[in-house]
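Model it.
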Amino acid sequence: MARADATLKQYRRRQAVWNLLESRYMIHLVLFVAVFFIIAPLAWQLITSLKTQQGVLALTYLPLDPSLDAYRRALFDRGFWRAVVNSIVIASVSTIVVMGLGTPAGYVFSRFRFPFDNAVFVFVLFTRLFPPIGLVTPYYEIMATFGLLNTRLGIIIANVYLWLPLVIYIMRNFFITIPQALDEAARVDGCTKIQAFRHVVFPVVLPGFAAGTILTFLYSWREFLFAFTVSTDLTSWTIPVATFLFVGDAGIDWGAMAAAAVISVIPSALVVIFFQRYIVVGLSGGIKGWDIVTSTAWTTEYRQQD
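Modeled.
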């Protein structure tokens, strides 16, 4: 009897611990800690960017004399604005090319059968398994041969190579979740394969397309290795490479570097905010929860266009 009571007490203690861990207070605490570790560095960078050169070295958390001088030094004195323009152009063009090639490629791999189709798909993914550091030397030699050193096009080519296999994989998985009956119904109503893709299938995978667009832009925005390999000055330096501008022989301009970090976050944050209506559904891995009515409204829209 005593042994049974001891076992019961032990069970109740364990249950009390689990009830505490699963309570909403503990969940809120964990979320608060996670958000704090994400937001704190960004907030610290913002606060530092508002300090003067002397204020950065002062033992104070908040700027005593807030100033935007760090942004002036970063953007104009060091020419960081050119790196911002380079990053926007390179990331945008890379995203357009990757999504323009990866979306139809994913559709083909999900819908059509051809000789060695699985082998081709595995080969596409296998090309991305090589460590990027192992490709730096041949990449540099190829860019030098074609005269693409220190050019935006050279970096765009590297981004397309890096992220095209990922987008093909993502889009193929989204297309697979769509019943082929939608394609067949469109063909019965007189659509060509291209029209069926444009008016029926693509609107349904729009969340996946948005997710692929976001990932490609963000990855291209932060890419460092290949951009550093072929860039020599602000003609093609991107933001991650141009950070070296603030490291001098005598010291580091922490205020200007913090200002550059804040500036570099703004475009990527705007991209996420712009696609926020799709990103939850898109990154959750499918079309669940997406209004399937949009995929059936193609008939009325298509006939109205005629």
